């Protein structure tokens, strides 16, 4: 049931869907139907390719989506057969110790706000449909409900690259699969595919790719059939543990990751390059292994 304000009540007019959907169209294809808003990450119509501007756009998009009362359930997914892609050489062509102080501070703010805004600015039920492998699954695991395909790859690459796992994936692992298991996967970077994620309690359902998004919409439509107040208040209960976790530990984790990056130990980029296939998947004309 859509929101109905009393005649005496009011609100500063939020940014309309048409405006913010265009504003973030470089990073998301936004679709809305009967209160359900789907955010499909993409780059040039293909799988989302990680960039610092995209990293910055995420938390701002969460805030604008959450500020629109016409959005009552959120679905977030990726494009094609990958959740996320990237190339470490493109991202780290300038070593972090050489970044300006303001750029380093912006990185800290983006890292923290990415998850803080996801659970604080979005006061509506959230559903992730993880459509394939790729990093930055932290906000997918922080959704109220997480669905995935069999070949998903929930992994934290930071320690394998010689860094510190502080941008949120390690933290969400600690709060979903437990401290001991999370430590193992943070250190080893072992893949957590869909069936393993289901067994560990990281996701709720594993589905064939063609059923993934329809199932997310089925659940969202079921939610929309319930009273609006019930949806919002149930989400408040579901997200409260995440709010506590991020308040207590997210800044600590992020600061330690950036501290490790600022020390600038040699060899991190070379180690990350060894995992290129895992970040971006095999490209056309390449063999399955580099």
Automatic annotation (TrEMBL):
GO biological process: fatty acid beta-oxidation
Top-level taxon: Bacteria
InterPro entries: ClpP/crotonase-like_dom_sf, Enoyl-CoA_hydra/iso
Annotated Pfam families: ECH_1
Annotated coiled-coil segments of the chain: none
UniProt xrefs under SUPFAM superfamilies: ClpP/crotonase (SSF52096)
GO molecular-function term, one example from the UniProt record: catalytic activity
PANTHER family found in the cross-reference section: ENOYL-COA HYDRATASE, MITOCHONDRIAL, ENOYL-COA HYDRATASE-RELATED
Protein name (record): Enoyl-CoA hydratase/isomerase
Species: Streptosporangium roseum (strain ATCC 12428 / DSM 43021 / JCM 3005 / KCTC 9067 / NCIMB 10171 / NRRL 2505 / NI 9100)
């Amino acid at each position: 049931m859509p929101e109905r304000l009393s005649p005496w009540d009011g609100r500063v007019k939020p940014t309309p869907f048409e405006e913010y959907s265009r504003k973030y169209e470089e990073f998301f294809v936004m679709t809305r139907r009967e209160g359900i808003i789907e955010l499909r990450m993409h780059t040039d119509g293909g799988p989302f390719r990680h960039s610092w501007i995209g990293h910055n756009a995420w938390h701002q998009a969460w805030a604008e989506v959450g500020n629109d009362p016409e959005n009552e359930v959120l679905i977030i997914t990726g494009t094609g057969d990958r959740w996320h892609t990237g190339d470490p050489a493109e991202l780290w062509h300038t070593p972090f110790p050489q970044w300006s102080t303001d750029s380093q501070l912006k990185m800290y703010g983006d890292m923290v706000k990415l998850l803080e805004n996801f659970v604080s600015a979005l006061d509506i039920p959230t559903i992730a449909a993880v459509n394939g492998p790729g990093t930055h699954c932290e906000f997918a695991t922080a959704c109220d409900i997480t669905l995935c395909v069999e070949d998903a790859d929930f992994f934290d690459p930071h320690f394998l690259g010689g860094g510190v796992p502080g941008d949120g994936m390690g933290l969400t692992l600690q709060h979903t699969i437990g401290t001991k298991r999370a430590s193992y996967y943070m250190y080893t970077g072992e893949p957590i595919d869909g069936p393993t994620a289901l067994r560990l309690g990281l996701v709720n359902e594993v589905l064939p790719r063609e059923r993934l998004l329809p199932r997310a919409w089925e659940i969202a439509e079921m939610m929309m059939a319930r009273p609006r107040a019930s949806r919002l208040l149930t989400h408040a209960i579901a997200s409260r543990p995440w709010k506590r976790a991020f308040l207590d530990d997210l800044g600590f984790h992020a600061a330690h990751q950036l501290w490790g990056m600022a020390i600038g130990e040699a060899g991190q980029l070379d180690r990350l390059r060894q995992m290129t296939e895992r970040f971006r998947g095999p490209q056309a004309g390449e063999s399955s292994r580099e």
